[in-house]
């Protein structure tokens, strides 16, 4: 059976961030992910995880100035120093939270910079991230993101991500396969999971088109989840969706998977 992690940036937003850990555990989750921990001391988050018997399975490197629209630094040639600092900060948190995966966001394509320059920067930063992360027992992951949610994002398709991962070594870098982004951009979900399975180190889910919980949109999730399981994926699937109503009221879809650890 697939194992689901609650995404605490999107779920349980009825409560302040630090109180969401207890709500996720009460709802039956054994693991959590979120976008960014950096507004809270790592020790405080570690305490919430321990108090609630939860594992931290993923979070993101600092993405630059999120409030001003930045969405990562890794492909940006003039931000390499900042990328190194972001990596070090994320690794400090990962150590404190015993987190095995870090999402390295590529960033938005700056106007006038050739694609090859961005790609070379992304590859060089990922190479460095892989080296530093390996020392800490962490795997960095990259995620193709659709044009509608983040217009101008550098990494958009699973094939593009796969080519970068193969060039750098799948044992060093993984794919964060977000089924929601894949359905928006590419579709053919099960065939794409089959194609990229050896590279996939983390998954995420939301239904399309609304980015709400599974069962609110157009995808046959029981079939997709069953195939993912049959294909042998044993990693986590982060529930990166905006609940259509109150979070707990929308967890009916999760009932068959609640006991997976
Ligand atoms: O948007 C997503 O999908 C994510 O996984 C985030 O980490 C990046 O915005
Ligand atoms: Mg995602």
Structure overview:
This protein has 261 residues and is α/β, with parallel strands linked by helices. 35% of the residues lie in helices and 14% in strands. The chain is built from eight helices and eight strands. The chain has helices at 20-26, 42-51, 80-97, 115-135, 158-168, 179-185, 189-196, 221-230, and strands spanning 3-7, 31-33, 55-60, 101-103, 139-142, 174-178, 200-205, 236-239. α2 runs parallel beside α3 and α3 (80-97) packs parallel to α4. The radius of gyration is 17 Å and the shape is globular. The N and C termini lie close together (10 Å). Magnesium ion is lined by residues 143, 178, 204, 240.
Question: Can you tag this structure with a few keywords?
Answer:
HPT_OtnI_isomerases; binds the ligand O=C(O)C(=O)[C@@H](O)CO; eight-stranded parallel barrel; hydroxypyruvate isomerase activity; alpha/beta; isomerase; Xyl_isomerase-like_TIM-brl; TIM Barrel; HyI-like; binds magnesium ion; 8 helices; 261 residues
Task: Give the topology.
Elements: E1 3-7, H1 20-26, E2 31-33, H2 42-51, E3 55-60, H3 80-97, E4 101-103, H4 115-135, E5 139-142, H5 158-168, E6 174-178, H6 179-185, H7 189-196, E7 200-205, H8 221-230, E8 236-239
Parallel strand pairs: 1-2, 1-8, 2-3, 3-4, 4-5, 5-6, 6-7, 7-8
Helix pairs in contact: 2-3, 3-4
This protein binds the ligand O=C(O)C(=O)[C@@H](O)CO and magnesium ion (MG).
Ligand LASSHYVV binds at residues 35, 60, 103, 105, 143, 145, 178, 181, 204, 240.
Family: Belongs to the hyi family.
Active site: 143, 240
Keywords: Isomerase
């Amino acid at each position: 059976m697939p194992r689901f992690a609650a995404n605490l940036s999107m779920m349980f937003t009825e409560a302040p961030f630090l109180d969401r850990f207890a709500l996720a555990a009460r709802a039956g989750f054994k693991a959590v992910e979120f976008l960014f921990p950096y507004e809270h001391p790592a020790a405080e988050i570690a305490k919430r995880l321990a108090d609630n018997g939860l594992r931290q399975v993923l979070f993101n490197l600092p993405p630059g100035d999120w409030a001003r629209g930045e969405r990562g630094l890794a492909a940006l040639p003039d931000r390499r120093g900042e990328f190194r600092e972001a990596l070090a900060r994320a690794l400090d948190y990962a150590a404190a939270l015993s987190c095995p995966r870090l999402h390295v966001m590529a960033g938005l394509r700056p106007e006038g910079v050739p694609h090859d320059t961005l790609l070379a920067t992304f590859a060089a930063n990922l190479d460095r991230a892989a080296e530093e992360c390996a020392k800490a027992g962490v795997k960095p992951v990259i995620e193709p993101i659709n044009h509608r949610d983040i217009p101008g994002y550098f990494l958009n398709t699973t094939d593009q991500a796969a080519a970068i991962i193969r060039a750098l070594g799948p044992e060093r870098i993984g794919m964060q396969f977000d089924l929601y982004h894949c359905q928006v951009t590419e579709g053919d979900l099960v065939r794409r999971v089959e194609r990229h399975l050896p590279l996939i180190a983390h998954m995420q889910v939301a239904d399309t088109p609304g980015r709400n919980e599974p069962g609110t949109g157009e995808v046959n999730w029981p079939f997709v989840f069953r195939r993912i399981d049959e294909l042998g994926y044993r990693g986590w699937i982060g529930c990166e969706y905006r609940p259509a109503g109150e979070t707990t009221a929308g967890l009916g879809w999760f009932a068959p998977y609640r006991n997976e650890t």
